[in-house]
Design goal:
The structure holds two protein chains of two kinds. Chain A contains nine helices and no strands. Chain A is mostly helical. The relative contact order of chain A is 0.16. The relative contact order of chain B is 0.10.
Amino acid sequence: MMRKVMVMLALAGFAFALLPLAFTAGVVTEPGALASAYLQDSPKDFAAANVVTAIVVSYRGFDTLGEVAVLFAATAGVGALLTRKRLGLGHAEEPKTEATEILMTATGLLTGLLVMFGVYIFMHGHLTPGGGFQGGVVIATAVLLNLLSSPRSHLAHGVMTAVESLSGAAYVGLGLLGAFLAYGFLDPRALPLGELGRLVSAGAIPLIYSAIGLKVGAELSAILEALKGDRA
Amino acid sequence: MLIDVAILAIGVFMIITAIAAMATKSLLVSILLSGGVSLAASVVFLLMGAPDVAMTEAAIGSGLTTVVFLYSLARSKQHDHEDSSESVEKPVEGIGGAV
């Protein structure tokens, strides 16, 4: 009883603290000064049709590098904690139940499509909505389907490690290229910008987003495999 | 106008689903309901004109997060059932690229 009253009081306090925001909230019809500057300049500066990608990869590129580093740290933590030895499961478990035929057939049909869709999302990040993070998650979904449909299979850890570290190194390498050939670290104008709206355009943005996509996909797949719980 | 009504309706659905997720006794139902909240949120993002946020919410919020919670639920139940003191050091077979 007492606890419920305290929770109610805390919620009421939050509501009171946030009340002024509710009065100032409304629909913004005109973008602010910074937003209009982004909307006007990003096609000119980077030849990127998708303004969100131009902001994420170039104007705020350093933040994105930080996000990727955070995701890497999280994956490393999960991988270090969820090993069989730490969980106290010394030996291989009894054979798990097989997946149903529906799941296995659907997995066979969907895996290729999902991987292709993920690659499409991160390669076209500068043209259409989405980018490296979304594409990477879609690829991890394909891996998840395969882990579910064949419970005894394992990811090839060597390949995952190679993809993850090579794409991370490529990301930082492209950033350094921007520092030497253009105006600063992670400046995509190190490569020729090309024509607005073409697949090969926007300088290094497609390459950077592809590296991010591969890295995120490999990391999330590794997390899922670690959670599956029969890792050595 | 129609979009505003749709967003409001989905918002009400989200609130009800979230309260149901907190109120239910079963952890499994709670996980599935919070996945449903995320799915509705991704539809709201799509209606508000943010397709990339919608994509992220649908894939991470309602897809991967639900799976991670389900895996950990299964893991905690498994941990309850078996005696975790018997840990035999033995190499594990089956480390190959089978996916």
